[in-house]
Design brief:
Helix content is about 30%, strand content about 15%. A hairpin with a 4-residue loop joins strand 15 and strand 16. It is built from 21 helices and 24 strands. It folds into three domains: about 220 residues, 3-Layer(aba) Sandwich (Rossmann fold), CATH 3.40.50; about 200 residues, Dimethylsulfoxide Reductase, domain 2, CATH 3.40.228; about 110 residues, Barwin-like endoglucanases (Beta Barrel). The chain is globular, with a radius of gyration of 24 Å. The chain is α/β, with parallel strands linked by helices. The site of one ligand MGD has 36 residues, from helix 16, strand 13 and strand 19.
Length: about 650
């Protein structure tokens, strides 16, 4: 690395991008962004690349995180994002928390769940997780399923809803329709398929007891109000979208929806994957507020809103994150701008993507250096972090809130917003940003939202600065915001005030229940790779540890461990604290054993936090066919003592 001035660096970047665009066309450049940038920043990047440069190569870490939930919601309801709010936690009598270690990863919301239990001890908490996590330890019922068997489990619970007469007939008759893929099916056809998921059968697939499945279904269906939470244990699966849709289906079929405390609720991972990415459409297939690039009408609408000539937006979806790095490897993408993400640490099956970085002109804007990604960068731009700049984040409940700047950035660091506007000028797209403060961009964006079901025209900077956030829809400045969407009387977008629910984004007003079959594991275990590896997080660290590694108080917290069941440890001749090598078809890495009965036999667990013990050399880049989100939650491995 050689020190350069901002002028030199930006001049070099602009020259390389302009040359690639001129020689190879706009699709030879790409943006890889993050759910950790402010909304104004992601909006600006999306507009610059899609309306300025003319490529839909805009994606990033949200693909690794929320894609399955986003696809799940948009396919069931058309409009993305959870329909409820955190306040529902104070009204629920039963919680089902699946594929989510809330105690470590959403500790504040988890404490709210615990508060509900403290004040209302009959509250029943079900946790579905292959590991006995800090969350599962507090559950009334823990279903310690085999990873990737969620589809069986939920089908089986739905079977039980039918058997016990827990189906809400009014919901079925008035508000739902049934599909298998894009084909309409009847309720009877849907029901018939459930015969394959009787609890005895599903229990064998899932590795739990039939009684546990029956009890989970009974509690879910019979409680006055059931609320579910889920995160990466569902999203990061090759059946991530299917699992998401089935969670929503359980609520829709039992009528556990649209009342205080009765709701499905997908927890967003990063601070702004919802507002910054899903709402603005900063993904390769998407455009603002639920529109998609493949739809000519949507393109035309957005071209009008962005005030650019017809035909500006490319009709071709760009590269989703995994495809982007493959395209870099193949030489199809020549220049990439990576902002606020550390993919050469966090992508699955990382080794080939290091080579992809070497073959591409890569600019990385990060608050820290070196990272696994900046090591392979051609230009590293020092970026200001959230406390060193200001902007709007969105929480999982659709709450936009303003984060004020608390301190100046160190040295010459600049905000990502400033970097993007500067790049836009140098690439000849100043006209896209005639007014260029962040507040101007927010105002442009909230006006655009007014032309959609996301309508948050009433959420001004002024209001955001004086309130702890506002939930959209919020169509005008006097509107208080919306806690429960699709509920007439609560949601300002409603069409039908007499209805119980109003899924207004669908012409027939009906949400869709999908039939899904359980797939076999995409990478089954065998004699050579007899164990399954799953990965995740601990409370004390954040992702690739760049922002937490340096914190003194956290330095005693280990992230180099491998959780191994005592039986598997014995078979491999391992004792507590031994150095152990984990090997998959793709790569290997070394860890330190932590022997524990909290994990299923046959399963091992590592975090992806540590750069020295890089688990993503081992993980697989198999993706969900709908969301293209990778399956970080299971691959076949073997372990050996080092
Ligand atoms: N402390 C801390 N908090 C964070 C983060 C962080 O890095 N550190 N990151 C944030 C981000 S971006 C995200 S996405 C969230 C992630 O939050 P979570 O999704 O809660 O975290 P993970 O540990 O990735 O995975 C959750 C659980 O899924 C389980 N699981 C694995 N396979 C399956 C399966 O097949 N089915 C089911 N039902 N469960 C399964 C795992 O055992 C694990 O306990 O956390 C956010 N919060
Ligand atoms: N094995 C395995 N891998 C996983 C997962 C898993 O469960 N298992 N989870 C996946 C998920 S859900 C996610 S969200 C991803 C996260 O993966 P990444 O996004 O790659 O991880 P982070 O460490 O959050 O990276 C953010 C980077 O941005 C920098 N940064 C922080 N603030 C700013 C800023 O304001 N501006 C700029 N320019 N830079 C900033 C940080 O220093 C850091 O290098 O990991 C995915 N990878
Ligand atoms: Mo995430």
């Amino acid at each position: 690395m050689e020190r350069a001035s901002w002028e030199e660096a930006m001049e070099l970047i602009a020259r390389r991008f302009n040359t690639a665009i001129a020689d190879k066309g706009p699709d030879s450049v790409a943006y890889c962004g993050s759910g950790q940038l402010f909304t104004e920043e992601s909006y600006t990047a999306n507009k610059l690349f899609k309306a300025g440069i003319g490529t839909n190569n805009v994606d990033g870490n949200p693909r690794l995180c929320m894609a399955s939930a986003a696809v799940g919601y948009t396919i069931v309801f058309v409009v993305d994002e959870p329909m409820s709010c955190y306040e529902d936690t104070d009204h629920a009598d039963c919680f089902i928390i699946t594929g989510s270690n809330m105690a470590d990863c959403h500790p504040i919301v988890w404490e709210r769940v615990r508060d509900r239990k403290r004040t209302n001890p009959d509250t029943f908490i079900i946790v579905v997780d292959p590991r006995k996590t800090n969350t599962a330890k507090r559950a009334d019922l823990h279903l310690q399923i085999r990873p990737g068997t969620d589809v069986s489990l939920y089908n089986s619970m739905i079977y039980e809803f039918f058997r016990r007469g827990m189906i809400d007939d009014e919901m079925v008759e008035e508000y739902l329709r049934f599909q298998q893929g894009s084909d309409r099916i009847s309720l009877d056809q849907f029901r018939e398929n459930l015969e394959n998921y009787k609890p005895e059968r599903a229990a064998a697939t899932c590795g739990v007891s039939p009684e546990q499945i029956r009890e989970a279904a009974f509690r879910f269906g019979s409680s006055p109000a059931t609320m579910s939470f889920w995160t990466m244990g569902l999203n990061q699966q090759t059946q991530g979208t299917a699992s998401n849709r089935l969670m929503m289906a359980m609520h829709l079929l039992t009528g556990q929806i649209g009342r205080p405390g009765a709701t499905p609720f997908s927890l967003t991972g990063q601070p702004n994957a919802g507002g910054g990415i899903r709402d603005t459409g900063a993904l390769a297939h998407a455009l603002p507020t639920g529109r998609v690039v493949a739809n000519p009408e949507h393109r035309r609408e957005v071209e009008e809103l962005w005030n650019v000539p017809e035909g500006t937006i490319s009709p071709n979806p760009g590269y989703h994150t995994m495809a982007l790095f493959q395209a870099m490897y193949e030489g199809d993408v020549e220049c990439a701008l990576i902002m606020s993400t550390n993919p050469i640490h966090s992508l699955p099956n990382i080794l080939p993507y290091r080579e992809a970085m070497e073959r591409t002109f890569v600019v990385v804007a990060d608050a820290f250096h070196p990272t696994e990604t900046t090591k392979y960068a051609d230009v590293v731009l020092p970026a200001a972090m959230w406390v060193e700049k200001s902007g709007v984040f969105s929480q999982p409940e659709r709450r936009y809130h303003y984060v004020p700047k608390l301190t100046d950035p160190p040295g010459e660091a600049r905000s990502d917003f400033d970097i993007l506007i500067n790049l836009a000028d140098r690439l000849g797209h100043s006209e896209l940003f005639p007014n260029r403060t962040q507040e101007d961009i927010w105002n442009e964006w909230r006006k655009i939202s007014g032309q959609s079901y996301y309508n948050f025209e009433g959420i001004t900077y002024e209001r955001l600065k004086s309130q702890p956030g506002i939930l959209w829809p919020c169509p005008d400045e006097d509107h208080p915001g919306t806690c429960r969407r699709f509920v007439p009387g609560s949601d300002p977008m409603e069409r039908n005030e007499d209805a119980r629910l109003d899924f207004y984004a669908r012409p027939d007003g009906r949400a869709i229940i999908y039939l899904h079959e359980q797939d076999p594991p995409y990478e089954p275990t065998d004699d050579q790779y007899p164990l399954t590896l799953t990965t995740g997080r601990v409370l004390e660290h954040w992702h690739t540890e760049t922002i937490t590694r340096g914190i003194k108080d956290l330095q005693g917290v280990r992230t180099d461990f491998l959780e191994v069941h005592p039986a598997d440890a014995q078979a491999a001749g391992l004792s507590e604290g031994d150095e152990v090598r984990v090997i998959s078809r793709r790569g290997e890495a070394d860890f330190v054993t932590r022997i524990t009965g909290d994990i299923r036999e046959g399963l091992v667990f590592a975090t992806f936090h540590s750069a020295k013990h890089l688990v993503n050399k081992i993980t697989s880049d198999a993706v969900d066919p709908f969301s293209r989100q990778p399956d970080y939650k299971r691959c076949a491995v073997t372990i050996e003592k080092v």
